[in-house]
């Protein structure tokens, strides 16, 4: 297996350094590609001083899916792994990947997150939508065969969030297999969750509706899933109002953002579905532009 590891990063110099240290120890022969876009914390200098990074790509765009595609573009391995900058591979990560990738198109594994009172871990998530079985993957810990990620044309750069879930829908449409490997694990130390801002609520539903409409069209299953999410989140927010955690005006404002996100996502999803009628369903993929990088340092 010829492995390339792509690490998109943004203002995470110290955590990225920890992640690179783990890769150097547990996957020393991997081609390591850092996509930095654009950081203001000295990330560029730190990476350029290291001897275990093969390529540094500098971006002007903060979109995670743009960063993923920029890394995929320069990767040379027949297997391409995507790793979050703040996650560290564990000792079993590489051997688990090597053992699983021979019989799979895509391999993903759990995140072990250290909490104040213990540790959490993830499990396999699957769903069936419009008769199609979708296996989701962890976008911060996943490896693709090169031909598979090329068949997807990378990630959809329209999306500011939800790019991995969109790719999972498209993998299912292409009849590609996603394998869950429990030993292909990564770790992150506890960090406080600041919650979802009003702007993020809007993008959450814009992304959800966009990827459902783009991949399945305007059908009952699409409307049903969007409505279920909105009702569940609306009920949770209403409980927050009763408890005093959320103001009534905040609840109304969030609802307005959610409605606007749904409307925009549905409209843009229909346009995207019309623009790319291929099975890849990716009108904003790797092949659509060549101006992602503003600078590239290649030490291979």
UniProtKB/TrEMBL annotation:
Listed GO MF terms: transferase activity
Domain of life where this protein originates: Archaea
Residue stretches making up the Glycosyltransferase 2-like domain: 4-114
Keyword vocabulary terms for this entry: Transferase
Protein name (record): Glycosyltransferase
CDD domains: Glyco_tranf_GTA_type
Organism in which the protein naturally occurs: Haloferax marinum
